[in-house]
Amino acid sequence: MDLDGVYRAEYGRCVATLTRLLGDIGLAEEAVQDAFTVAIDKWAEALPANPGAWIVTTARNRAIDRLRRESTREARHAQALLLHEPDEPGQLGPVRDDQLRMIFTCCHPALSPLAQTALTLRMLGGLEAPEIARAYLVPEATIFQRIVRAKKKIRDAGIPYRVPNSADLPQRLSSVLTVVYLIFNEGYASTSGPLVRTDLCQEAIRLARALAELMPDEPEVIGLLALLLLTEARRPARVGPDGELVVLAEQDRTLWNQDLIEEGHDLVRQCLRRAQPGPYQLQAAINAVHTDGPKTDWTQVLALYDQLVQHTPTAIVALNRAVAVAEVHGPAAALNAIEELDLPGYHLLPATRADLLARLGENEEANAAYAEAIALATNDTERAFLKTRRANL
Predict the structure, then answer these.
(1) Is residue 157 a part of any domain in this protein?
(2) Which entry of 27, 33, 171, 183 is 20 to 30 Å from 5 by CA?
(3) How far is CA 345 from the centre of its chain?
(4) Residue 182's Cα: distance from chain center in Å?
(5) Is residue 176 situated within a structural domain?
């Protein structure tokens, strides 16, 4: 792993740990960034045995130096806390609790929903503004402004860095689940670079497991964990031997992770017994159908999407439902279903339209739709896949 890889894998954990020590997210972020700057020179020859611990220790020492130069009572108190911490924090140790605290702090109801998730994705997931903007289909400037304002509000309002009490958890749960879901999504289909970022997928699953331990009686928490496990189970077959994207219908199902599928199916059955369906449970059920048997029962998938649309009537859900409509009722019906959808900048809308048009033999229109999708796609692997499909018209 190189320095960039360490940054992606360890940034959120290190900021979370320093925030626990300092009680100030902004100061923690600055200290961790300083530590990575030092690492550029220190790690020129080789990485340390435990890069995460090295970053935390260096960031802690940089923070102490900074606080010593300040004379406020708050700075002296923070310095005292830092000085009494052990010199070498473990690689994991309290990290899990630290990250949960970070999620719940950033998802405080005093912040807007977009600010909550944008800040947490930046601080915990280590995602950059373009990646977060892609998830929400909004301009990068909007995300940057929301993050800055959210950190300022947390500092000025003295919002505590802690997991709220049990009575306050449900109020924040929706945003927390959204954060974990979007971290996984960025890992499973990254904005740029390799198609899959395994570190983000694994981190999202770890966080989902931690949430399931914290709130085992919340059906949507169990549903999210099941969704991530069943999606992750298909990842080994998602990229071909030459790094090309392989769509679901063409994947080698023998490569799927059967242990994750079995665990995910068990969690879906738990959700069904509770009879309190929600968006993540329904998505998990859809993925359970995809991973049940040698082929997908598209009629069952469409029925589940019909329920999901009732819970989450968004354009993206409608677009995904159209894929099932095409399998059950044909591409013309699916094309009609997406005709009025408005998803500016989202490459999968013209990509889906192109596929449906090609299946109808409308190659000229399909060619134009593929061209639009290629222009919007930011990931090289996805762009190459679309170019191949266009060339095969």
Answers:
(1) no
(2) 27
(3) 19
(4) 3
(5) no
